[in-house]
Structure formats: structure tokens, C-alpha cells
Amino acid sequence: MKSTDKQPNRVSTCSCTSYHIISFRITLYFFLKHFFLFFFYIHTTHLHHISNQKHSLVNQTTTTMGSGGDIERWGSNKNRGPPQATYYAPSSPYHTDSSDKQWTSWLVPMIVVANVAMFLVIMLVNDCPSNHNSSLQGDCVAKFLGRLSFQPLKENPLFGPSSSTLEKLGALEWDKVVNDHQAWRLVSCIFLHAGVVHLLANMLSLVFIGIRLEQQFGFIRVGILYMLAGIGGSILSALFITNNISVGASGALFGLLGAMLSELLTNWTIYANKAAALFTLVIIILVNLAVGMLPHVDNFAHIGGFLTGFLLGFVLLIRPQFSWQERHNLPANSRSKSKYTIYQYVFWLLSVILLVVGFTVGLVMLFKGENGNKHCSWCHYLSCVPTSRWRCDNQ
Fold it and tell me: Which terms under GO biological process does the entry name (predicted)?
């Protein structure tokens, strides 16, 4: 979840000022997000198991055929007929693709630790007991924590710091990025969170999604994917949200979801039960994007991160087609299979082009001070849809 927060010198125009209502929406988002992610985690575990069984079954069948040939050749039973062809796996190192390696996940846990540590730093800097005027909005929450105590719930229902503290430490803000040339905020905001609820939601999502990807593809590809998706989400968010500050890792997290989708599509031949996995993943993405249309949730970061991750998945997570992986089981005179399919090459090239063009156009527009809402009059509905229960901030 990417959280948007109002600066202290600006008045929110959302009619739902009750922190109970805001907390309910955030709790609903948290529940839906992790219910579907947990369901998908169990489903993909089963999917991966089936895929491994598919590879093992082919290898086992081939080995049996080879063993049978040896028995026919050396056995004493002459009534078994002519010996069958014996296939031997070549000594070439290419028959096992590197993507089949089970990597040890250490980057994702490190990111979780870094985010938790950064949140502790934020709360120490915030120092609610010393910097908050209790006569205006009430006392700090959990005062027994001392400097780590939270802002009053009416100010921050997520159990976190003030918006001024987040702004000081690197929250994404259009004015500071464009006019003060603080481009580093496009990166720093990924590691900031608006509260304990916000941090917990994003870190659980990262564990559910990130560890599985890192185990399959390694820390280098997942690390590049995580950071570029987070930056892509920040760019789109800064282009369309000009009056609020924004923090959170959800752009990067949606990038991982987008990469999972493109990875499934581009590596279609190596999976079993893929249609069910595709349906489940699409439902999860749509539910999260739909809930992102509630106020105080930065859906532009979600969309930007998802699109970046989706394109990066075609580039970074491509794997050899199933027929190439199993070519060592074929006779020596069998026709060689291409390692990748034509559509994998096409998607790879198109994705690289779209990524370069997208980042270039986005950064140029941002640093020229363009407001995305002026070029797209309806795009603000992608982040917040007004209803009879609430109005949206004028972004």
C-alpha cells in the first residue's frame, strides 16, 4: 500500500475526516490484500510442485528407457526382442538451465530489515512527546514508548509519525522534486512508511511475493526489478499527485506482481495448471488496484510500479522453453530446439523499448514541471473515485 498524507499546512478536502472510517478502509485493504496473496502463495506452491513433477516425470521416463535398453542388451532373456534405443544425457552443462537453481533468499529479508530500521529512525526523529502540542489534537499514542510513541490517531490513524517528519526524511513531494531538484526523493520514499499498519502490510506482502521470486531467479534480478519498479511508481505518482506527499514500497511490490504475471506469460510452456494460476494472479491484481481507488491510497504508484514490473518480467525473468530444457532426452540425431521462442524474443525487445521510452518521457515531463492531470482529465479517477461516503482530494 502506498500511502498519501497531507502536509500540515494544507487542509484535506476529504469529507471522511473521522480516523475510524480511514482506519476501517485501511484494515479492509490490508485484509483483502493479504487474503488473496496468501491464497496465491499456496496456489503457486502447488503450481511450482506440479511443474517440477512434470520435469521429473520426463527425466524418470527417459532414464527408464535408457536402463531398459541396457537390460535388453546385456540380459540373458532372448525372447524380449531387439534392444530398444538407448539415450544418454550428454555431459553438456546446458541441459540444466540456471533458472532451475534454488537460490537462497537473503535480499528480501535484508530489505525488510532495512525498512523496519528506517521506520525506527523515523519515529526517533519524530519524537512525538517533545514535538507535539497535545492541546490541539490530543496526546501521543503509546506514550510508554518514549520517543518512539505515535502521533494522535486523529492525525495519523496508521500509528506512525507526522507528515512533516516524513517530508523531512524523504517523502515524495512534487514541489521538492521539481522546484528544489531533489530527485533522490523518487528513491527514498520507497523505504519510508506512514505507520506500523502501513509497514506491516507492505512487509508481509514483500515476504509473500519476494522470497518466492528470489528463490527462483536470484537476488540480482529481483533487486533490479524491485528498485526500478519502485522508481517507476514514484515517477507516475509525482506526475499526478502534486498536492500530497507520498511514501511506501507498494510501487515496488506491485512491480513484483506485474513481473509474476509476465513471467507466467513468457514462460508459458514450462508450467502445468497455468490457466488457473493466470486467473488467480489477475484477480489479485485487479482487487488490489480496485481497493487502491479509495482515498489516502496512492494508486498511481501501484499502476506505475505494476507496469514497470510487468515489462521488466519479460526482460529479466525469461527462461528456456520446456522443449529446449528436455532436449538432452532426445536422440543425438534429433533436430535441435531453439532455447527461446520467437514470441519471447519479441516481448523482450518490445519491453526494453517501452521501458526506455516510458522512463525517458516520464522523467522529462516531471523535471519540466508538467502536471499529468492537465494532460489526462480523467486519470485522477484511477487513484480515487468519489462516492456519497467520501470526496477525493483535488490532485
Answer: proteolysis
Catalytic residue (choose from 149, 205, 246, 250)? 250
Grade residue 65 by pLDDT with cuts at 50, 70 and 90: very low
Return d(Cα 380, Cα 7) in angstroms, integer.
19
- The CATH classification number of 3-47+101-382 equals 1.20.1540.10
Where residue 127 falls (left for φ over 0; alpha for ψ -120 to 50; beta otherwise) is: left
- Quick one: pLDDT band at residue 35, thresholds 50, 70, 90? low
Catalytic residue among 198, 302, 351, 383: 302
Give CA separation, 165 vs 8, 11, 90, 169, 346, in Å. Answer: 10, 17, 62, 6, 46
> For the chain, what are the domain ranges?
3-47+101-382
Annotation says 250 is catalytic? yes
Model confidence at 76: pLDDT above 80: no
CA 350 from centre of chain: 21
**Global pTM value:** 0.76
Contact of 313 with 303, CB cutoff 8 Å = no
- Whether 1 and 198 have beta carbons less than 8 Å apart is answered as yes
